[in-house]
Write a structure and sequence with these properties.
Helices cover about 15% and strands about 35% of the residues. The protein has helices at about 5-25, 250-265, 290-305; strands at about 85-90, 90-95, 95-100, 105-110, 115-120, 135, 140-150, 155-160, 165-175, 180-185, 195-200, 215-225, 235-240, 275-280, 310-320, 330-335. The strands form three sheets. Strands 1, 2, 6, 8, 9, 11 and 12 form a seven-stranded mixed sheet that branches. A five-stranded antiparallel sheet has the order 3-4-5-7-10.
């Protein structure tokens, strides 16, 4: 498993990102202002005796914010097994990766960019790495990810690329604190083979909002698509939904994830056993940990009930999560189908 040096990574994500943005910024130059009007001897007319007030000027309408562009994929050389590459400003550099063979997860870091990527089977369980260190995705499964380093509000687009042809998987959105978390589905009819999983978003350093060119980062990972024999937990359906800072409101991404879970169940079975446990991340007021984690679990339960998922619900708030970062603000959902 190859790694890039910390110096080259910091240079890319720190100085390199900013330098790329400055190249797109308008050139500095002399700003010309219109000349002040020449004073005249004309006296200011006296106010009329009617005393009618002059009409107040109408306020100018607030400008409509320009929507952020949707980042697209880019064709890059296929990464080596166990490696991840970042493309920014036309250059490609290998990032530092740390893998867990049993869970199949890959941690990616470089400068301001931090990311955890983990495939999940159709039943929601982890998918171990291939023998060569490649990440494995199961058709009908999903890919969970969380991290930071992208522009607040930016779309985070996921693609699978094979033979120079990108296939769009789904989209997440960066939370208000600059973190992101969620999952996207893997098509059930995906042919077996080697692909590049690419995650594209707007760079956090892109602050030139008036500049028509906004920089995009693409993170690429080699993955192998293959079916995996079901294990004992195959009937158990699991998922995780993530929340914004100090919020128990379900995001669009969280609702989409719960709809996918519900579609894999017999919603009408009263024998379903649904367990939902909410967590909060570090950094907030500790007195709020228990109530906020419970509120997150209840939000999930209420949404599943609204979709007609019946069964015996166990809903709890576990308070502070042992995890760090945006993946700590979560609710774990485990469903034992009623058969």
């Amino acid at each position: 498993m190859s790694r890039a040096t910390a110096a080259s990574i910091a240079g890319l994500a720190g100085v390199g990102l900013v330098a790329g943005l400055l190249l797109n910024a308008p050139s500095a130059g002399t700003v010309e202002y219109p000349p002040s009007p020449t004073p005249t001897d004309t006296a200011t007319p006296a106010p009329t005796a009617s005393g009618s007030p002059s009409p107040s000027p109408s306020p100018s309408p607030s400008p409509t914010p320009t929507p952020l562009p949707s980042p697209t994929s880019i064709i890059v050389p296929e990464p080596e097994p166990g490696d991840a590459t970042v493309t920014f400003g036309g250059s490609t550099t290998t990032l530092v990766t740390t893998q867990n063979a049993a869970t199949g997860s890959t941690e990616i870091s470089g400068g301001n960019l931090q990311m955890l990527v983990q495939p999940r089977s159709e039943a929601g369980g982890p998918v171990p790495l291939a023998a060569d260190g490649s990440m494995v995705v199961n058709p009908g499964g999903s890919v969970s990810t969380s991290g930071r380093g992208f522009l607040v509000g930016s779309p985070v687009n996921f693609y699978l690329i094979s033979g120079g042809v990108p296939q769009f998987l789904g989209q997440l959105t960066v939370f208000s604190d600059g973190t992101f978390a969620g999952s996207v589905p893997i098509p059930a009819n995906l042919p077996a083979g080697v692909y590049t999983l690419q995650i594209s978003a707007l760079a956090a350093e892109s602050q030139f909002r008036a500049d028509p060119v906004i920089s995009v980062i693409q993170v690429s990972i080699r993955v192998e698509a293959m079916d995996q024999a079901r294990v004992n937990e195959a009937k158990i359906v699991r998922t995780i939904v993530y929340f914004d800072v100090l919020s128990a409101e379900l995001s669009r991404d969280a609702k989409a994830e719960l709809r996918r879970l519900a579609n894999r169940l017999d919603k009408r079975s009263l024998r379903n056993r649904i367990t939902i446990v909410g967590f909060v991340g570090p950094g907030g007021p500790s007195y709020n940990d228990k109530s906020l984690s419970q509120a997150r679990a209840r939000s999930v339960a209420n949404y599943l009930r609204s979709m007609g998922v019946r069964g015996r619900y166990t809903v709890a708030g576990a308070g502070l999560s042992p995890r760090q970062g945006p993946s700590a603000r979560r609710a774990n959902v485990v469903v034992q189908p009623g058969g």
